[in-house]
What we know:
The chain is of the alpha/beta class. The chain has a single domain (2-186), classed as Isochorismatase-like (Rossmann fold, 3-Layer(aba) Sandwich), CATH 3.40.50. It is built from 6 helices and 7 strands. Strands 1, 2, 3, 4, 5, 6 and 7 form a 7-stranded parallel β-sheet that branches. Helix 4 links the parallel strand 4 and strand 5. The chain is globular, with a radius of gyration of 15 Å. The chain starts with a strand and ends with a helix.
Amino acid sequence: MSETTALVLVDVLNGFFHPDGAMWYPEVESVVEPLHRLLDTARASGTSLVVHVADRHRPGVYDAEFDHIPEHLGRGGHDAEWFAGFEPQAGPKEVVVEKRRYSAFFATDLALILHEHRIETVVVAGVKTNVCIRATVTDGFQHGYRMVVPREATNSNRKHLEEASIEDISRYIAGVVPLEQALGLLR
């Protein structure tokens, strides 16, 4: 099944994952190992598509997100770089998608990339459950993809919003599954 399955890693960037990152929170460390397992499994399959999604903004250029959260993840800055161990590898099975909104689908070519690779199932992991994960999974569902969220591979610094988002995602939008089940989809 992995030839029709993609792994989408959302915002595995220094800004969230490095202790010096502007948006780092201690709980994020619990998803690093599950994210490594997902990435290693997808790469080892040789057939799963890996999409590295990065929230990156033009430094000094207004972006509507800044009305809600402080200016962040400016291109070329330390926070916008890949967290160590999650750098994309060159090759046709790993691609980078930059976004300027919470969803990895909005105003990007992610849907086109998935369509061209004949992807049916999209495993989404990274940060934050209640913001970028939820928005990405919702938009993927709207595009007709079978969306899957490995529960151990996403979290948030706002636990009540994380739990509410997981409940809504599970009920209305996507499969929220144990890590081992997601790994099986990528093999």
